[in-house]
Amino acid sequence: MNNNIKVPTGIDDFKFLREKDYLYIDKTLFLKEIIDEWGKPCLFPRPRRFGKSLNMSMIYYYFRNDFDSKYLFKGLNITKLGNAYLKEMNKYPTIFISLKDTKFDTYPEFIINYKEIMKNLYDKYNYLLESDKLDETDKEDFRKIIRKEEDVLLANALSKLVGYLNKHYNEQVIVLLDEYDTPILHGYERGYYRKIIDFMRQLFVTTFKPNPVDSPVKKGIITGISRVSKENLFSDSNNINVYNITDERYSEYFGFTEDEVNNVLKQYGLIEKKSEVDKWYDGYLFGDTTIYNPWSILKYLENNNHILQTYWTNTGGIGLLKNLIYNLNNRQEILNSYENLLKTNIIEHINLNVNLDLSSLEGDRDNIYTLFMLSGYLTPIDNNISLKDATLRIPNLEIKENLENMVKGWFKGPLKNYDFTRYLYENDIEEFKINFENIVIESFSYYDVPDNNNGENFYHAFTMGLLRSGCNNYEITSNREAGYGRYDLILKPFDKNKTAYIIEFKVAGSDFDKAIEDGFRQIDEMKYEVSLKGYKIVKMVIAFKGKRLKIETK
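The structure assignment produced for this chain is given below.
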């Protein structure tokens, strides 16, 4: 047992990790696979914090020709394979950039940041300004990037640097682009998707060209959450090898395998906790390999009390997932399937589209749950995964808690395991109204809630999440057929002596009283109460306009 090994949570610099003697799970055989597949660029879509950046840093230090990195790899698996692989060490000019921090509200802000990224990158290679292999035009273009001049064709800056290094060294260049889709996904959320796609297409087409012998690029390695398809980011659809989480090859290099977790738990004297660790952090299937969440394992080891809890929160683009659930035209279908997912831990009949098409995310249940899988919130039910009619499952307790908290995350306050239904259970309607209105006022931005049917669904989702949080007394059902229509929410108490509730949501417009009246009329005319025979029933209508609301019962 060695509890003194430092845990590298949040450290993705391979050199720093090795020099400072942090724990390192040896993934260097990844280098062998890369060398065996020289040629086409490779894209590795994986969830956030599953080791992508550390792997890219490891690749960078292995191949870069301006640094002697042999000491960093001493004793690691790649050094045991012989000269065929060792001769590739420190041989190639290597460029490494990351876009993981390019999350901006506007496209101009992204451009300003990308100029800074390119300036800092070019600064590392400013010795090229003294190279006799570059002509004066090359050098002036180089200076323009460093000066961040306005007339620079910024999307071409990476490919130009590749060309400069190729000229100077007369050697092909390795290009590492980490988290390439961060600005794309953020642009999609913030409304500048078209502009960022045009920018990234230019970057990809100029940098990752087909790879004939005379190409300046030896190998391109790209990471992200997904492959963004139907946008022609690559000059030819056959010009990149994509290794998704459903593919067997490379499956063991992102995240921790079971053997790796066993070994590290033994090192820390925690092997007797293995079964509990499995329940919390295991359960992913990448190809046919069982994978553990590496971030959570490391945080668990780092925690002095080794508490099993949720560590991997708010890391996998969950903001986009929440927005998709609550802002779709057919959100009620998604909400119903999501509610069933939380009850059963599985979602069935999904046609997976691992080449993500953002343009068809809205309104497409299959694409949404594919994004859940790519982001690390769902995983194939077994290793016989078929892209058609697939079944996905919640991998572990940590993710189950994340998914349950997704709705609760829409409003502020420590509401985990807080049973808001207790007011209704105790027939304290006035207290329910007061607390509900306070939560809405504190939590909603006025502009969160449109004054149309989408706003109605917004309130529906919010209320369902609020009532389901910590609920022990009711079966809560949503949008099911009863009588002559579909009700919004029904709370059926497990104790038949307690009151059941039918809840209807109505957009108020300028007349709250009319909206309330319409809500009660709908409940009565549609005869929703037929599903509650034998129960004492209270009918509730929640009318709203933005975050102003009125609640009436009868």
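Interim note for the steering committee: Residues 422-553 form one domain. The mean pLDDT is 85.
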